Every structure is written in structure tokens, then in C-alpha cells.
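Sequence in, structure out. Go.
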Amino acid sequence: MQKKARLRKQFKKHKIDGFLVTDLANVRYLSGFTGSSGFLVITDKKALFVTDFRYQEQAEQEVKGFRIKIENTERAKEIRNICDVLGIKSLGCEEQNITYGFYKRLIKAKVRLKPLTDFVESLRIIKNQKELSYIKSSIKRAESAYRKLIPHIRTGSTERKLALKFEELLKQSGCKLLPFEVILASGPMAALPHAKPSNRVLKKGDLVVIDWGGEYRGYFSDMTRTLLIKGPDVSRQKALYSYVLEAQKRAIECIRSGIESARIDAAARGYIQQLGYDDYFGHGTGHGVGLAVHEKPVVSWRSKEHISENMVFTVEPGIYLPGFGGVRIEDMVVVKKNKAEVLTTLPKKLKIIEG
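Output:
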């Protein structure tokens, strides 16, 4: 199996003879298991999937390329027994995913651990064609639900009512789970990048920021659109929207294989700074999406990562003015050699709701 082979190539470099995978997204990535309890132990020659009795039948149906074992003792002791049987002297583990309590139990069980960062995530960052097809299907579901939501958006509706309706539409489109609760914020609330839907009633002249995602076979999508409720004087709202749209365009146009992710961020941020809004764009320009809705790469001024072909991430600049409102436009892209292919297909021309 190609994924396991790529993982094993890192063993010698890190001086380990086995690796423990406990993060469920990573377990799914490597084995295909979709349940809520299980872990992997991989050595140069062996690959073991371990779960409890509840998931035995599910594991037999889903898990590929691993021998299945059912736990019969406390998990830390189980892992120690596996290490003894497989001759593992140094066991790598996921530094950012293992809890401190579990780590202490493993140490107490005399498992010799070597915490490593992004060991599996460094593989997940590059999507294969099957993963890209799943992400595209996730996007299709999310966009279909959004189109069905539009007729419900009008003055007098509340943020909460619309968000609940949207989540219903997403599930009706086929999403078994949502990557996050729908963000739907209007008027002054739209100045909060991650505002929770409230009982606020939509009014004329409101900017309405909607951030949501879809799902297909465990792979997620993430996108944002900003709408405008028609009002008597909305010139400032329209101007803000045009600024964010241009910032996003500049960021997308500079994407290519080999570029530093910080330069993508700078393309959007630099334009917003030129307009005098640098204090009102505080988050990064993007993040990876796949089996998790926030994964590598990170597109931010803080990032030192370089972008490679077949990475998938969002491009989502925004401007947020306290007491007035905000604008964010978010699309997903996949990196090609000399450009970015935009995966999301919803129009980006400002949509004005008649109310």
C-alpha cells in the first residue's frame, strides 16, 4: 500500500522501528476505518489495526491492508504487549494528537515513545486523484444546499432560523456530518469572523456573511459568501466587497507550485493594507482542507511552508469593521504546476437580496 510505504520511509530518519497512530482522521486515511475507536501500529514489516469488540464487524468491512486485532486489555497495556510481540524498541507517536494522560499511561506501561510532529499529516497534505474527487463531491453538495437556501434569505428572517434551515439542507444534500456549525452573521455581527448565529433579524442594508462546508466520504469542503440586503445607501458595503474580492483575486493569481505560502497571504494582505484596512484583517488567508476542515498547509504571514502540486486549501481574505459589518469571500483551490485551479463554482459577483 503506497501510503504505508511512504510512512515507513521515514522510520530510519527518525530512528524508530514502529509508529502508533491514534488520531482518527489519520487512522481513516491509512486504513479506511470510519469508526470512533481504534488505533494503528505500523512497523517495517507489519501493519496492525486494533479496536474494541463493538467495531469488529465494521472493521472487517472497512479496513484494508492491516491485520485486525480486538483489544482484550487496557489500551496502554495492549500497546505494550504489541510492542513486545513485534519487537518494537522505539515507538513513534503523534505528538500533537496524543493526550498527556494517555502518554503518561504508556510511559508507565514501559512503552518507549518518541513523539513526532506531522508524521502522517505530511502525507495527507498532498491529495491523490481519489481524494480530489471526494473533495469535489463535497463541494458540490455544499453548493447545492446554498442555492436552495438563497430564496429563504430576506428581511425579517433571523440568523438562527436561516442557519438551522441551511444545516437541514446540507444534510438533505447527502452530508452525513458537517465540518462545523454554519456561521451566518448579519449587520454588525458580520464584523465577527466566527460569529454564532443569533436571534438578530436581518435588516435592509445588512451585509450577511455565510460560512459553511459539506462532506463526502469523510472529506470536507469549506467556503464563504457575503450577501447584501438591498437598502437605501449601501455604497460603503459595495466598496468593501469589491476590496475583498480584489484581494482574493490577487492571492489566487499568485499561487503556483514552489511558492511560499506567506507570499500568497501577502498578496491579499498587502492590497488590503494599501487601502488602509490592515487593522481589520486579522486572520490568515487560508488553510488546508481534507479529512479535517483545518489541516496543512497554513496560508498565513506566520507560515514558512512551501506550496506543492495537489495541495488543497482555502483562500479567504476579509475585512471586518466593528459596529458596521464585514465581508469574507472564501474559495477552495487545488495547486497545479503554474496556477491554482479554483474548485468552488459559486458566482462571486455581489448578490443583492431584494428583501
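Check: The chain has two domains: 2-124, 129-353. The longest helix spans residues 129-149.
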